[in-house]
Amino acid sequence: MWVNVVFSLFMTKSIPPQSNAFFVHIQKRPCSTSSVSTGRIILVDYDNLFLITEALNSINNQTKFIVTATTTITNRFGA
C-alpha cells in the first residue's frame, strides 16, 4: 500500500510534532523502486535526453538526470 498525504505546515511543539492532514490518497498497487527529488528544472535537453535541476535554496547545487525510454516521471501522487 502506498499513502500520500497533504498536510498543514503548522505543527504542535510536542514530541513528536503533530499536524492536520488536508488530503489522504491511498494506492493499493505496490510502489515500484523510485527516487524522489525536489527542485527547479533549469534545463531540458531534448537532443541529448537529459535535464538539469537546481536545489530551491542553492543555485550552486545542481543535478543532471539522464532520461531514457524506460524513465518514468510522476507527480507527487504517483500519477
Explain what this protein looks like in three dimensions.
With 79 residues, this protein is an all-beta fold. It has one domain (2-66). It contains no helices and five strands. It has strands spanning 2-7, 21-27, 40-45, 50-55, 58-66. The strands form two sheets. The protein has a three-stranded antiparallel beta sheet with strand order 3-4-5, with no helix packed on it. A two-stranded antiparallel ribbon has the order 1-2. Strand 4 and strand 5 (58-66) form a beta hairpin.
Report the mean per-residue pLDDT as an integer. 83
Beta-strand proportion: 35-45%
- What letter string, H or E per element, gives the SSE order? EEEEE
Arrangement of strands in the largest sheet? 3-4-5
Strand count, sense and closure of the main sheet? 3 strands, antiparallel
Summarize the structure.
The protein is an all-beta fold. The protein is 0% helix and 43% strand.
Topology:
Blueprint: E1 2-7, E2 21-27, E3 40-45, E4 50-55, E5 58-66
Antiparallel strand pairs: 1-2, 3-4, 4-5
Label this structure with key terms:
single chain, mainly beta, 3-stranded antiparallel beta sheet, two-stranded antiparallel ribbon, flat
